[in-house]
Structure formats: structure tokens, C-alpha cells
Design goal:
Shape: globular
Largest sheet: 8 strands, mixed
Helix content: 40-55%
Number of strands: 13
């Protein structure tokens, strides 16, 4: 046997040295030839501004689609270099510090020809740079005179074009920003003689992802149409439900304050004065718990807060549907299930945590608001009664109306509004999580390459789970009580996932417009009373609830307790759904065991999607800039067009 191996090894060495096929290494691709034939070149830069790979497209012929080939970034140097810097209230800052910052933000872009031979090719192209800023971040953007600033839907488009081919492009823009963010910067190097290259460059950019996924097949149009119908329904619900509940919350809030100062009025004695009478307020604090009209008003307010906050779950569902539709249109359903499953879990966690924070924020805001309201009310009541508490109850309604219309409550009201906005944002995350999970369940049989069991494999899912589990345990462990228990758990989870998917698809078939979210929420009694217990504790009167954890002097531990209590119902729902989430089983197609290995295309898909977005951005920029004259200032050349995506904040 050893002799045979030695002879075979010798023969292979001879074959290799003689240029035999078995041991000859594949020749390096001729990247120079690929680049010379390039019509368009695309790249996405990393965090250091350097691209990791190039996507090279040759021009299409006779109606055929352009051929795209991936080339290492080391094979060529791009003709243009771009640098981006930021300033905040004057001084320059890093990208990390400018992200989510508020203040006077400056964005400074510099585009220069590269050094060496690459720089020479820059003399045949004109740079165009563009990016967007969400309108909600900054509604008023100013820029240098060579920059175009225009509204594009919910974004502000900032674009600029170089002058002569090969000349540098530098510009700055400024804005008073709130929680600053911006898109990546798209840099296009366009041949100086032909507008047609712009159309070809941007249209090819949008189809790069098709070579990696099933996005361009058109087979998902029915799915996209179904999702669009759901989106239209959620948009309608977002408008109507939020409007109705906002009105109800406003009325309930006024009823709560009326009950609050109404109770306070009954405890007034002697001369009223022009500021809060603390003995009367202490008496009111005693009615914040128990079977009293004021305690009921607190409960009603808590329900109204929950209802109007939960209405924003429909906004989250719209956001989820927008994202899923866009991703299917851009990248098909390849790998979509696993991505959405992960994102749903992340959104659920954000929603739960942020809602607990919002509850504490609202409870803390209600303390100064209530104190200020009582001060203003007392002054109004004193003026109406001549300072005597004898007829105070008779003038209470008039004093309440005057207090509600007073400008003195604006600052305190702003804090309450900010807390309500925080609760609404938290519910958007929760709604997005619920919507993503429902989409996965309702349309799992139409998603490709995901972990949700399809109809044809659902019956074997439990057995596969047990087999995979057994393979991960030693023989003795798999037959132990622990191993059998884990196997039973796997069967139950797979069966629950199967039932949920079947129920969701049945619901979708019966009512295609059924909402993707459950826009109801509940709170524990301790959280409900947290609106008032902080004030009670601050005054040192009435009954307190140690688990409310939302007063002015609440500790970190009590806040944690409040978070746990406040989201108990939500967490229970999330836990049930998480435990029943689709499970990824690894098993071979012939049933002999082992794990199926799949090539992870997510990085390439993400890059090509970014390039597609940048192509759309450049198309909008060119339309806005109207650069036809600038692109016709030199004789015709055969220079390729370039599109580079530069990450920002």
C-alpha cells in the first residue's frame, strides 16, 4: 500500500511538472482585460474609505443584458478620491460624534483626482456627488453656491457637480439638525461627453443585485401586491386609529386634571392664596389610591395613554411593510426569512425597553406638570372667589377652564408631550416587530431560502429537530432524561411554529386586509398608579406603592422593577412568540444526517443594494443639476463611468 501511494505521488509530481491538468494551478484572471472592456465600474467603500471589491459591467450588445464581473479592489485604482468631514457648532468632530447629534451641523465634501495613472483617467470624467438628509432631521439646509439643495419626498437632496473634467469638487452645507443622520454619499465619475452614460450607469446599478438573487425574475409580483394592499390598510388604520385615540386621550387627560384639582378644592380651607395650598394637596394625595373618583381617573388616564401609544403600532407595521416590499423588489426573497426573523427580535427588544423608559419619563413629567397646574388653578380660583375657600367648589369649573387655556403650562406640557412621543416611538418598534413576525408566518411558503418550514417539510420538522439535537449530544446524553426532555421541547416548538404558520396563512386567505398588529396594551396596577405615586411620595402623604418606581426620587432599582412590571404583559406575548419562532434545522437531503452548508451572500447583496440606491440618488441629482452642458465640454472619449458609495453616519 505504501509503495502504491509513493508511485502515485511520484506520478502526480511528474504530471504537475510537465504541465499536467491535475496539479496545474488555475491561471490568474486577466483583470486588466476586464477593466479595459469596462463600461461601468461600481464599488462600496469600507469605514476607511477604501473599496473591498469592484463590480465591473461591460456594455450590453443587441439588447442583451450587461455582463457583470466582480474584481478585487487591488486590481485597479479609482480615478477619484473623496473625503468627508463634519463640524458641530463650529469645531470639526468625528463621524461618531456627529451621529445623532443636535446643533449646527456642517458636512464638508472634497473630491480630488487620484495620484498616478488613475489620476490621468480622471481628466476624462466629471465628478458628481450627492446625498440626502431626512427632512425630520433638518428642514432648512443651506449650502455653497455651487450646490443644489432640493426636496425629494421626505428627504432633502444635496448634489454638486465638478466644472472642467479632472478638476476638484469641494463644497459644504449647514443645517440646524436634531438627531443628525444622513445617507451614504454617492460619487459618480461621468464621461465628459455623453449623457447616455448616466442612464446606463444608473440603470445597471439597480440590476446588479439580480445576478445574486431572484429579484429580477418577476415571480414575486403577486407577493409584492399582497404586501402593498396590507400596507395601504395599515396606513389607513394609522391615520384613523391614532386620530380617534389622540382625541380620546386629550379628553381623558383633561378629565384627570379636573378630578385632581376637584379633589384638591374640597380640601381647601381658610384663605386660598395664590399658590398651591400644601395641606389640601396632601389630602388629595390620599385619594390617589382606593375606591375614589380620582383613583378611577388615574386608571382611565393610564388606559388612554396605552391606547394612543399602541395606535402607533400601525406606523411600525407600515415601516415593516415598506422595508419588506423594498427588499423583495431589490433582492428578491433570497435569505429574507432569516434576516427578518433576526430584525423582528431586535425590534421587539427595543420596543419593550423603550416603553418602560417612556413610562418612567411620563410619570416623572406628570409631577411638575401637576404641581404647576395646581399653582395656576389656585391663583385663578382665588381671583374668582376673592381669596376665600367658602365658595371654591362653585367656581371650580370656571377656574379649570381658565387654567387649561393658560400659557403658563407650556413648559411643563412640553415634558409630558416628549414622554408621550417616547411611548409612541417605542410602540412603533413593537408594531414593526409584530408585523415582521406576521409577514413571516402569513407568507412563509412564498419566501425562498429561509428557515421557516414550508408545507412540504413541516411534517418532518420535528423529527429533523430531534435528529439534529441528538447529533449534538453524546450517545448517553441523547438517551438521558436531559436529552429526551430537550428533544420533546424541540418537537413542541416545531409543532407550535407549524400551527402558527398555518393559522396565519389561513387568516390571510380569509381576510387579506387583517391588521398585522394587535394595537392593545395593558399595564400592571403598580405602573398605572406610578402616574400619581411619585407625587404622593414627594409630598409625604397618602399611600405609596414601592414598586411604582416612577417618582422624582425613584432609585435605579425601583426603575428596574417598574420596567419589569410595566412590560409584563408585552413580554409574555413576546416570549410566547419567540419560543414558537421558526427554527433552523440542519440535515442532509438524503436524511443521513449532517449539516447543510450554504454560501452567505448577505455581504454581496447588501453591497449591490447600496449601489442600486446610489444609482437612484445620482439619477435624481443629474436631473436636478441638469449637467448636460458640463458633460459636453471635451471631445468624445471611451472612458468608463464610475459609481462609488461612501458610508457616512
Amino acid at each position: 500500500m505504501k509503495l502504491t501511494a509513493a508511485v502515485l505521488s511520484c506520478a502526480l509530481c511528474v504530471a504537475g511538472s510537465a504541465g499536467g491538468a491535475w496539479l496545474s494551478r488555475p491561471e490568474e484572471p486577466d483583470y486588466a482585460a476586464v477593466l479595459n472592456a469596462a463600461a461601468d465600474v461600481y464599488a462600496v467603500a469600507d469605514s476607511k474609505g477604501e473599496p473591498t471589491r469592484l463590480y465591473v459591467s461591460t456594455a450590453s450588445t443587441q439588447g442583451s443584458s450587461a455582463a457583470v464581473q466582480r474584481v478585487p479592489a487591488s486590481a485597479a485604482q479609482l480615478p477619484w478620491n473623496i473625503s468627508v468631514s463634519y463640524s458641530l457648532d463650529g469645531p470639526n468632530v468625528s463621524a461618531a460624534k456627529i451621529a445623532n447629534a443636535s446643533g449646527l451641523v456642517g458636512v464638508h465634501v472634497t473630491v480630488r483626482p487620484a495620484h498616478g495613472d488613475a489620476g490621468k483617467s480622471a481628466n476624462r470624467t466629471v465628478p458628481v456627488a450627492a446625498f440626502t438628509i431626512p427632512a425630520q432631521v433638518a428642514g432648512d439646509v443651506s449650502a455653497d453656491s455651487n450646490v443644489s439643495v432640493s426636496a425629494q419626498g421626505s428627504n432633502t437632496l444635496v448634489a454638486a457637480i465638478g466644472g472642467q473634467p479632472g478638476s476638484s469638487l469641494e463644497f459644504s452645507c449647514y443645517m440646524n439638525a436634531k438627531h443628525f443622520t444622513m445617507s451614504s454619499i454617492a460619487l459618480a465619475a461621468l464621461p465628459a461627453d455623453a449623457d447616455g452614460d448616466v442612464t446606463r450607469l444608473t440603470s445597471t446599478a439597480s440590476t446588479l443585485v439580480d445576478s445574486l438573487t431572484d429579484a429580477g425574475s418577476g415571480e414575486h409580483q403577486q407577493l409584492v401586491d399582497q404586501l402593498k394592499a396590507l400596507r395601504a390598510n395599515e396606513q389607513q388604520l394609522a391615520q384613523t386609529v391614532t386620530s380617534e385615540r389622540a382625541a380620546a386621550h386629550k379628553q381623558t387627560f383633561q378629565n384627570y386634571m379636573a378630578a385632581y384639582v376637584g379633589s384638591y378644592t374640597t380640601h381647601l380651607s381658610g384663605s386660598i392664596g395664590t399658590s398651591t395650598q400644601l395641606p389640601a394637596l396632601v389630602g388629595t394625595a390620599g385619594e390617589l389610591s382606593g375606591d375614589t373618583p380620582l383613583a378611577q381617573a388615574v386608571l382611565d388616564l393610564a388606559d388612554a395613554v396605552n391606547n394612543v401609544s399602541a395606535a402607533h403600532m400601525h406606523d411600525g407595521a407600515v415601516d415593516a411593510l415598506d422595508e419588506v416590499i423594498r427588499r423583495i423588489q431589490q433582492q428578491g426573497t433570497t435569505g429574507l426569512v432569516d434576516d427578518l426573523t433576526k430584525e423582528a427580535a431586535e425590534e421587539a427588544t427595543k420596543g419593550s425597553k423603550q416603553y418602560s423608559v417612556g413610562q418612567s419619563q411620563l410619570s416623572a413629567a406628570m409631577i411638575p406638570y401637576s404641581m404647576k397646574y395646581t399653582d395656576v388653578y389656585t391663583a385663578r380660583l382665588s381671583a374668582l372667589t376673592g381669596g376665600s375657600s367658602a365658595n371654591a367648589v362653585a367656581y371650580a369649573r370656571q377656574a379649570i377652564d381658565e387654567t387649561n387655556s393658560s400659557d403658563e403650562l407650556k413648559d411643563s406640557q412640553t415634558k409630558v408631550d416628549a414622554a408621550m412621543a417616547a411611548l409612541a416611538t417605542a410602540c412603533e418598534h413593537t408594531g414593526k416587530a409584530q408585523a415582521l413576525k406576521q409577514i413571516l408566518l402569513r407568507f412563509s411558503d412564498q419566501f425562498e431560502g429561509g428557515s421557516t418550514p414550508a408545507e412540504t417539510t413541516q411534517d418532518t420538522a420535528s423529527d429533523s429537530a430531534v435528529r439534529l439535537l441528538s447529533q449534538g449530544l453524546a450517545d448517553m446524553q441523547s438517551q438521558s432524561f436531559y436529552g429526551k426532555t430537550k428533544a420533546a421541547q424541540a418537537r413542541r416548538k416545531a409543532a407550535t411554529a407549524r400551527r402558527q404558520a398555518q393559522a396565519a396563512r389561513q387568516q390571510q386567505s380569509q381576510d387579506s386586509n387583517a391588521s398585522l398588529v394587535d394595537d392593545t396594551m395593558s399595564m400592571s396596577a403598580s405602573d398605572v398608579m406610578s402616574y400619581a405615586s411619585g407625587l404622593t411620595s414627594a409630598l409625604g402623604g397618602g399611600k405609596t406603592n414601592s414598586s411604582a418606581g416612577a417618582g422624582a426620587e425613584s432609585s435605579e432599582n425601583s426603575t428596574d422593577a417598574n420596567a419589569e412590571d410595566g412590560s409584563a404583559a408585552t413580554q409574555a406575548k413576546e416570549k410566547d412568540t419567540a419560543d414558537a419562532a421558526p427554527i433552523l434545522f440542519g440535515f442532509s437531503q438524503n436524511g443521513t444526517g449532517g449539516t447543510l452548508l450554504t454560501h452567505d451572500m448577505s455581504t454581496l447583496i447588501a453591497e449591490t443594494v447600496e449601489i442600486g440606491d446610489a444609482g437612484q440618488l445620482i439619477a435624481q441629482a443629474v436631473l436636478q443639476l441638469g449637467p448636460a452642458a458640463a458633460l459636453q465640454q471635451s471631445p468624445s472619449t471611451q472612458a468608463p463611468a464610475y459609481l462609488l458609495v461612501i458610508p457616512t453616519v
